[in-house]
C-alpha cells in the first residue's frame, strides 16, 4: 500500500503532470462557461419572448372580441384583409433562407389563385403592392 | 528554471481564461441562434395559417364563418394565457379586455357541451390577470 502511494505521489509530482492538471481545468472551465452562457441568455431572453407572446395573445383576444361584438360583415372582412396584409408583408420581408412545407406552399398557391380570380375584390386591390413578394416565400421547397 | 515553470502556469492560465470566455460566448450564441430559429419558424407558421384562414373567410364571405373563426381565435388566446409560465402583471387595458371577453363568453354559451378539459383550460385562462 505504501509502495502504491509513493508511486502515485512520484507520478503526480512529475513535471509533465502540470499540463494534465491544467488540461482538466481547461475542460471544466469550458463546460462551465458554455453552461453559464446558455443560462444567462435564456434568463435574459425568455421573459422578453413570454412578454411578446402575451401581448400578442391579448391583441388577438381584443380583435376577436371586437369582431364578435360588432356583428358587422364589413368589419370582419376588414380584419381578415388586415391579417392577410400583415402575413404577406412579413413573408415578403424574409431573407429567403427558409424552406416551405407542402402545407405552406399549398396555402400560398391557393392565395395566388384567389387573387388571380378576384382581381376586382378590394382585398386584391388594397394588397396589390405586397402580393408578388409575399407569395414568393415558397420558391424554395422542402 | 523557476522562471520557466511560472511561465508555463501563466500561459496555461491565459489559455483557460480564453477558453472559458469563448465557451460562454459560444453557449449564449448557440441558445440564441436556436431560440431565434424556433421563434421565427413559429411566426412563419402563424403567417401561413393566417393567409389560409383569411382567403377561406374572404371566399365564404359569411358572417357566421367570420364569427366562428373569431370565437376560435378568442379561445386560443385565452388558452395561451392559461398555460403561461410564471407570475405576470396585467396592464389595465389587458385586464379590461379579459373581463370583457369573459362576459361575452358567458353570454354566448356553446349550443353543444364542449370537451371538459378545454373548458377547464379556458377557466384557468380567465384568471391570467388576477395575480399580484
Characterise the protein shown here.
The complex is a heterodimer of chains A (142) and B (132). The termini of chain A are far apart. Chain A has helices at 2-12, 17-70, 73-92, 102-117, 122-127, 131-134. In chain A, 78% of the residues lie in helices and 0% in strands. With 142 residues, chain A is mainly alpha-helical. Chain A is elongated and about 95 Å long. With 132 residues, chain B is mainly α. Chain B has two domains: 1-61; 63-132. The longest helix of chain B is centred in the N-terminal third of the chain and has 59 residues, at 2-60. Chain B starts with a helix and ends in a 6-residue tail after the last helix. Chains A and B meet through α2, α3 and α4 of A and α1, α2 and α3 of B.
Short précis:
The complex is a heterodimer of chains A (142) and B (132). Chain A has 142 residues and is mainly alpha-helical. Helix content of chain A is 78%, strand content 0%.
Features:
heterodimer; A: 142 residues; mainly alpha; 6 helices; 0% strand; elongated; B: 132 residues; 2 domains; 4 helices
Please mark out the parts of chain A with pLDDT under 50 across 5 or more consecutive residues, or reply none.
none
Number of helices of chain B: 4
* Biggest sheet descriptor of chain A: none
Tell me the structural class of chain B: mainly alpha
CA radius of gyration of chain B: 26 Å
Class by alpha and beta content of chain A: mainly alpha
Q: What is the topology?
A:
The complex is a heterodimer of chains A (142) and B (132).
Chain A: H1 2-12, H2 17-70, H3 73-92, H4 102-117, H5 122-127, H6 131-134
Chain B: H1 2-60, H2 63-82, H3 92-107, H4 116-126
Amino acid at each position: 500500500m505504501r509502495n502504491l502511494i509513493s508511486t502515485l505521489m512520484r507520478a503526480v509530482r512529475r513535471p509533465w503532470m502540470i499540463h494534465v492538471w491544467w488540461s482538466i481545468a481547461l475542460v471544466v472551465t469550458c463546460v462551465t462557461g458554455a453552461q453559464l452562457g446558455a443560462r444567462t441568455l435564456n434568463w435574459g431572453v425568455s421573459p422578453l419572448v413570454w412578454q411578446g407572446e402575451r401581448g400578442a395573445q391579448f391583441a388577438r383576444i381584443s380583435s376577436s372580441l371586437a369582431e364578435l361584438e360588432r356583428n358587422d360583415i364589413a368589419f370582419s372582412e376588414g380584419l381578415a384583409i388586415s391579417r392577410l396584409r400583415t402575413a404577406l408583408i412579413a413573408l415578403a420581408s424574409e431573407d429567403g433562407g427558409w424552406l416551405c412545407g407542402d402545407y405552406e406552399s399549398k396555402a400560398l398557391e391557393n392565395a395566388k389563385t384567389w387573387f388571380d380570380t378576384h382581381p376586382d375584390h378590394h382585398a386584391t386591390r388594397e394588397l396589390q403592392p405586397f402580393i408578388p413578394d409575399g407569395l414568393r416565400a415558397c420558391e424554395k421547397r422542402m | 528554471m523557476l522562471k520557466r515553470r511560472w511561465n508555463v502556469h501563466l500561459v496555461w492560465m491565459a489559455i483557460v481564461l480564453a477558453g472559458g470566455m469563448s465557451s460562454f460566448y459560444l453557449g449564449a450564441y448557440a441558445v440564441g441562434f436556436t431560440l431565434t430559429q424556433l421563434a421565427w419558424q413559429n411566426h412563419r407558421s402563424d403567417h401561413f395559417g393566417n393567409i389560409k384562414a383569411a382567403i377561406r373567410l374572404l371566399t365564404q364571405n359569411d358572417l357566421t364563418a367570420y364569427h366562428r373563426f373569431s370565437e376560435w381565435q378568442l379561445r386560443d388566446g385565452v388558452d395561451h394565457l392559461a398555460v403561461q409560465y410564471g407570475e405576470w402583471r396585467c396592464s389595465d387595458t389587458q385586464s379590461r379586455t379579459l373581463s370583457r371577453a369573459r362576459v361575452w363568453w358567458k353570454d354566448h354559451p356553446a349550443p353543444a357541451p364542449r370537451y371538459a378539459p378545454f373548458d377547464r383550460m379556458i377557466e384557468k385562462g380567465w384568471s391570467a390577470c388576477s395575480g399580484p
